[in-house]
Specification:
about 30% strand; CLIP domain-containing serine protease; 2 domains; alpha+beta; 6 helices; secreted; globular; Thrombin, subunit H; CLIP; hydrolase; six-stranded antiparallel β-barrel; disulfide bond; disordered N terminus; single chain
Length: about 375
């Protein structure tokens, strides 16, 4: 009884704390209330797509240690803005194409008030993850052997060694799968209490063009980056949406920064995971990493080292997937690296080496057409 009384008192205080006027992202005058007292935004954030999440994020009017408050109006999406004619000068500064995701639509995940245990992802977590499916040139068997990330409606960013070099002598890329969670099931569902939640059917996409970086070296994995242009546009949803490219190409990611790697690669059991997993890895100082690998691999400025903790690592099957960093100010995720190589998997003291994305941003924008 005392616990119930305390919870009721806490809710009463938090509600009273936030009852003040505010403006929604669409300019509507409303009240600043607890997210749990605003069903229209709460439900939209849980079940809507990236645009709904962005609207919810911009509706936050206050935060406290124990709650989040939103400007609770009547809308859950942005209203169309007035179209302004572009002058020739404005057009000169416009990007060459619209194939790379806009900053306003990338890197968002739906807010989820549930907590998932272990390293298993949620159904809609990291919706930009792609699975690359191959066919063996020897026996025709199909298997998922690499990953990638959606960066726009037509393009997947991956590792060059996944699409060229030695691997291409034995396997042929045949399919790009999006919106996957469990590769062993045709319908992905999880039980949340008494409620079952399911994801949309997966998307299997063909491709028109593969563009590995011209300076890629198969042996050293230097410049291990490539683009795949799909054969049709991706329809974004809660389960399929793009990740952001880094904005400032010269910005340095600090050592010990916590990054996330996700994928379906090998686990400590020696087999690929059926379910999409995630693991947090720290960035390792460039000099320390170079010294660790010594003559076996000359680590360059175009690579990032991360990991080195036992059984916490990317592994075979994760290649091409993103090394991700969350921008705490905008709540958007950036792809800072691409899974490239390592010494074994999850060995104590041995970080994995990732292709650094920032130096290649101009190349990506030039070739994503």
């Amino acid at each position: 009884m005392r616990l119930i009384t305390c919870i009721f008192a806490l809710y009463f205080v938090s509600s009273a704390f936030a009852q003040e006027s505010c403006k929604t992202p669409n300019g509507e005058t409303a009240k600043c209330v607890s997210i749990f007292a605003c069903p229209i935004l709460y439900e939209s954030g849980r079940s809507g797509g990236p645009e709904a999440y962005r609207f919810l994020q911009q509706s936050v009017c206050k935060k406290s240690f124990y709650n989040i408050y939103v400007c609770c109006g009547s809308d859950t999406i942005f209203k169309p803005q007035e179209i302004v004619s572009k002058t020739p000068d404005m057009l000169a500064d416009a990007p060459r194409n619209n194939y790379i995701a806009k900053r306003s639509e990338c890197g968002y995940m739906n807010p989820d008030f549930r907590i998932y245990g272990g390293n298993k992802t949620g159904l809609d977590e990291f919706p930009w993850m792609a699975l690359l499916e191959y066919q063996s040139l020897k026996d025709g068997e199909r298997s998922f052997r690499c990953g990638g990330s959606i960066i726009g409606r037509r393009h997947i960013l991956t590792a060059a060694h996944c699409v060229t070099g030695v691997a291409s002598r034995y396997y042929r890329l045949v399919n790009i799968r999006l919106g996957e969670w469990n590769t062993s099931s045709t319908s992905d569902c999880v039980n949340i209490g008494k409620k079952k939640e399911c994801s949309d059917p997966v998307l299997n996409m063909g491709f028109e063009r593969i563009t590995p970086f011209a300076g890629y070296e198969d042996g050293s994995r230097y410049n291990d980056i490539a683009l795949i242009r799909l054969d049709r546009d991706i329809k974004y949803s809660k389960f399929v949406s793009p990740i952001c490219l880094p904005m400032e190409e010269k910005q340095v990611v600090k050592p010990n920064a916590k990054m996330i790697v996700a994928g379906w690669g090998q686990t400590e059991n020696g087999t690929n995971s059926e379910v999409k997993l995630r693991v947090q890895v720290p960035i390792v100082n460039y000099r320390d990493c170079a010294r660790k690998f010594g003559r076996s691999l000359k680590v360059t400025d175009n690579q990032i080292c991360a990991g080195g903790q036992k059984n916490k690592d990317s592994c075979t099957g994760d290649s091409g997937g993103p090394l991700m960093l969350r921008n705490s100010e905008t709540d958007q995720w950036l792809t800072e690296g691409i899974v490239s190589l390592g010494k074994g998997c999850g060995e104590e003291g041995w970080p994995a080496v990732y292709t650094k994305v920032r130096p290649f941003v101009k190349w990506i924008k030039k070739h994503a057409y």
